[in-house]
User: Fold these one by one.
Assistant:
Number 1:
Amino acid sequence: MEPGAIFMLVVFVLIFGGGLAFCFTQIKGGSKWED
Amino acid sequence: MAEETRERWSSRVTFLFAAIGSAIGLGNIWRFPYLAYDNGGGAFLVAWIIGLIVLGLPWLLMEIGMGRMFQKGAPGVFSSIGKKWEWLGWWPVFVAFLIVSYYAVIIAWSLRYAFSAISMAWGTGKEAATVTGDFFFQKILQLSSGPAELGTIVWPTFLMLAVVWIAMFLIMYKGAGVIGKVAVYTVTIPWIILIVLVIRGLSLPGAADGLNYYLSPDWSALLTGDIWFAAFSQIAFTLSVGMAGMYAYGSFIARKADVSNNVLITGFANNATSFFSGFAVFSTLGFLMQALSLPAAEAVESGLGLAFVIYPAAISMMPTANALTGVLFFLCLFFLGLDSAFFLAHGGVTAPLRDKFGGSLAKTTAAVCVAGFLVGIGFTTRGGLYWLDMFDRAAAFYGLLITGAVSCIVIGWFWEPGRLRDHVNETSDIKIGLWWEWMIKLVVPLGLIFVLIYGGLMHDIPEAYGGYEIGFLNGSQVVWIILGVTLVLSFVLQQARTRGRGGK
């Protein structure tokens, strides 16, 4: 693969991995899923 | 109290899977990778992620948040804002109904291909790979000469369509509780299959060349309108917003549960799935280009052409495990489509109808399934593909964009979006700021109007959509008629007496 393609691959793996990891670390116990 | 009988997600996990399942659909596999290739490769990914942040996530948050706040589907939400706006909730209900009517037919084709792949009915080897178009258009669709020649029903597709609607009824008739549990499987199975397909694709010769077409950035593309149209349109169409269903899915969330973090997870999971799908598609296309000595322009397609012509050609050329790869690919399409379809039918149509007219869940679900099946029969005819194309243009393009833009304008300027922000922030893991209100007021509607004009009106006004001629009408006029009829019907439903729980 070309260097530009590898760069974009790494950047977007970090964006999605980091984004989802951030969301999961924000989950708090106060959220009630039953009325 | 009405709230006591509202359907509920059984847990956060089931809601997340249902929302992710609705968002992830056929477009993640057959539209996104092509757009990346056609619009600057890796540079497209930058525009696309910007589109997710400024357009997709704010819009998704609005729909899920409004549904949760008012505990109603789309028409009930807009009726609660003001009775005069109720039609704006019904219009996307018609959009959802029309989309699911033809979407179920595409799922039926996928199912036919999954069975055909067991025996590799379209053949193996170089000769077969060059005629997969004939297999799709002549054998599977038995395509007629044009939309004016509807022709007979293609019975194998009719049969599979019946199977799809029966499956959807069984999943939907008990409501969100069962839908959420089924979605765990209909999302996980295609994810597992995609992993297998990526590994399979990367093991083929030429895969790296294909990935270069997918990911190598051409930064100059960012200065063109095409890339922003492609990125914003993909975001608008991929998250299942603008189809009424997300209001209802939000309304099934308990009053003290999180909204904003789930929206973020749904958006990121959807786009991550698209990104990952690109590896399955382009590694395989790289192999096909090498095997048939094809230039990229001839090997890379989007939509039906990619799924039912190009990918089967690549499967024909694979040295081993052709049938297994084919079955897995089409089962992946089947499952990806299925949870989007039951989202459209249940959240987009059944829930709003029950809010308005009452009635049991099972009976309303059955009525929606029968109606969707009956309309879908038209798309199983030999001329059905042409009509599917025009209905897709009317509903999934114009209907979605217009209702989405107007909804944001009404909520942003004629209501108080700050109330929704406060409501969401009360119970959510992640607090949203004032910026979100301006996204809804300005950025999202302007983004959608840009897509509407740049990718739609600029083409369909001067030229007939698809070049279709049906008697004295052309393709564009049919599209306007479909839109007009659904708009009128939306006002008719606004006038109907509310017998369910959807009124003010």
Number 2:
Amino acid sequence: MKILNKILFTGILLLAVFLRIWNLGNIPISLNWDEVAIGYNAYSILKTGMDEHGVRFPIVLESFGDFKPALYSYLLVPVLMVFDLGSFAVRLPSAVFGIIGVIFSYFLTKELLKLRGNYKNAPIVSLTVMFLLAVSPWHIQFSRAAFEANIATTFFIIGFWAFLLGLKRPIFLFLSAASLGFSLHAYHSTRLFVPLFLLFLIFIFRENLLAYGKKLLTPAIIGFLFLIPFFYFALTGRAEMIFGRASQTTVFSNSKSLNEAVYKIGEGYLKHVSLKWLFVTGDNDRHHAPSSGILYIWELPFFILGILILLRDKSKFKLVILSWILLGLVPSSLTTEVPHAIRTLILIPSLQIITALGVVKVALTVWKKKILLLPAFFYILFIGFGFILYFHLYFYQMNHEYSRFWQFGYSDAVSYVRQNDQKYKKIVVSNKLEQPYIFFLFFLRYDPKLYLSEGGTRKTKEQAFGKYEFRNINWKEEVHDGSVLNILSPSDERSEPIHTIRYFDGGDAFIIAE
Amino acid sequence: AGTILGVALFLRLYRIDQVVPELFGKELEVSLVNSITIPSFVSHASLYLLGMSEFAVRLPGVIVGVLTVALMYYLANEINQRLMVRKDSFFPLFAMGVLSVLPWHIQISRSDLGVSLGLFFFILMVFPLCWFKQNKWMIVVWVLPAAAAFHADIVFLMPVILAVGFISFYHSSYIRKYWIQTVLSVALLAAFMMPFFRSPQILLRPDDQLTYQLIENTKLSQERVSYSMNTSLSKVLYLPIIENSKLFLSNTFSYFQPHSLFFSWDKDQYMNPNFGLFYPVDLLFILLGLAFLKKKKTFFTVSLIYILAIVLYAAFLHGSSQSTWLMPVLPLAVILSSLGFFRIFELRARNKFVFAFVVLIASFCMVRFLGIYYIVENKETLIGEYEEAFVYLAKNKGSIPVVVVDSTYGKNLSLYSRFFREGPNDKEFIYSVNNYCQDGRMHIMPTYLIPKGAQIYYISQAQDEKMNIGIARL
């Protein structure tokens, strides 16, 4: 790397670190149920070697029936040796992997651009990709919360980069196999995407790979080792550990007929080809900042230009990028909630590469034809405005406007209960609050050993530990002699509350009543 | 061509009085309200000849729809000659076939006479434009169908303005040469456009939904500035125009969402949400058509500008995407789709497998549309329940005045009452659900509002009990 490149690389890296680590524990405002479940299971593994269900060193966390891949929790265990169980600690692995993803996006882009032959602008395009990923609303959103998809994406970026390097030096194929293998155990959608994409890569680069002969055996064995757990679950009649989550979300289980399912898949696939989703609105409110899409609006012209450049390309570069995008949409299209920014997170680098091609093309044209400098100056102002607006919306407004989407209030509810639990024999929490038991375990830092000795998490909707019960509350049939504290959802029937916890938008989050 | 026209007629006429189950307010307005417009004139004539029925209301649209399919043959023929797609008549036949089975055009032909007529005249307008240089009087002639198009429905005004722009740009020397015809043409067009000049707000006023969204944006901006302690930065960042620009962009992008266009247009009342405006397989055809058109640079550029202008204007006026406002793009889309279909058809000798596969998919899409649209999907609607009550009352009690308690929230129930009972304008007897009194008169109202002990004459048989409409004396 030339010195200027090194300086830019370091600058972008520092920017990525700042945007992912600054105020990590407080923005977003609260841990959501998945983050809390990952956090408490990691805590439980650290203290007992078992998850909340009492499974020793699990590969899949049954959690609340959504069968989370356990890799994130294992990555969290060493963090919990250093930091307290809390928001910052739970989110730190994701933030770190986000930063690693930004770094390796540079190297991956460089290797990919080599497929275009002697492309002289490779370093500048690679740096642009790195920058775009560093400031990407989509990537920041999922790097600042404990989303397994972010870990999977980074493993995929490293694995893909190593694969391309491995075409010249077979030693890198070991790293590729291991990293892609880890990505299979990091998130659900990579289990479908990575094998499909890998098969495609093997087909495209079959000549390079076949030339290695027996040298391919060891990487293949490494890759196979990562598949053993899947075979094990399938052969021992526990296929739900692999397909459990898929069966809950797939269109097949939510359609009346095969015909309808096929139609929905086609529709779902195309729902991702939406400029509105990408640049203006986003999807679920937990997946983007207020009034924002998952990409910047100013990226749109560069994105369109990048697509045109890509379509004119005649090298394998085009094939690889297009197949990445086309196959990357497959897992999400098979599910019901589409478009979906998490299930398609794997696509981020490919989209940023396309945008970067457009950015660099425009920048070089402007540089050559000085006449365009004035419009370029105004566009740079527009870009700057876009950054400031997004960062203000994310770091300042989001907590205020989106507290309810981030399941705000559990921490306060647990604090209130902790201060007052001496007065009550029993504390009953309504199941209308989403999976409240895991929030109470987490925020109480309830001893996992004690929890497991009490039976751990049951396979029913009702849970209990210590003096806490988590179940549906029928207000008329409950005991109201002052010995029971009820934590209720606003939709529960109740008498006069003794305390109310509110979202920042003023709506009721928790009702506490005797 | 005869077979295609027969298919077009069947698809537009079959179960016309039942699918779509309820008449839209706009259909009734055209049919019952006395106004000097082309659709109103046509509709009144139909009602006069055939009597007050859904069939009579919808038949003119069907006929115009079939005529449009026929016209598409000639339009495609003109384009074929200019783009040199193929020498024989296959291409125009393809275009006709594509339009005859197109879900978008079938549904509009069956439910919106104004837009159907507008489209017919709009396509008619293109011919004089194509023959511009062969006969100087075409400079004047094209104005007549153009005026008929935008007077049939306002959505065709923008295409006419664009046509003026394109003519001025591409034929400036020609129109200067024949300045007498040009002046005549401009005067004629200005005369026809006079009503819009008198009340330009018709062309620029955002619809209710967009107005609401703009007000909400202003509130949101104020809240954000206030939460940010009224800092100067926040006052700039949260200017309402920024949020409004995003809204405009979002509305614009909504028109380009492929899943809406090809799988599920769930944005307005005229389209069945189970289908797109096109069949899914049309996506492939349109992409292939675009790839072909790319080589014809002028046509490609003009098409692109035309589509963008239509969409931007529609997005500027509406809070959600409107299939009717996109209608001026339909002929172009049909041409593109036909070009693509034609390409696939040409493949059949070289690659039978691909051709067979595409035909299979296309057949599946069509069968699905026919099955769901005409047979399976015939949901009960609140207006349908009111209709039954009106019909019951007309049969059993004559045309006595009744109080109608309107629970439709926004539909013009007086028109429905007038249509189904063939009675006088009952506007004065219609009350909202929150504003009626028990005065001993006959009431048509939701059953959940009928008080206990009231004498009930009739209750509709909706599957969803909340939709049941009853007749009672309160």
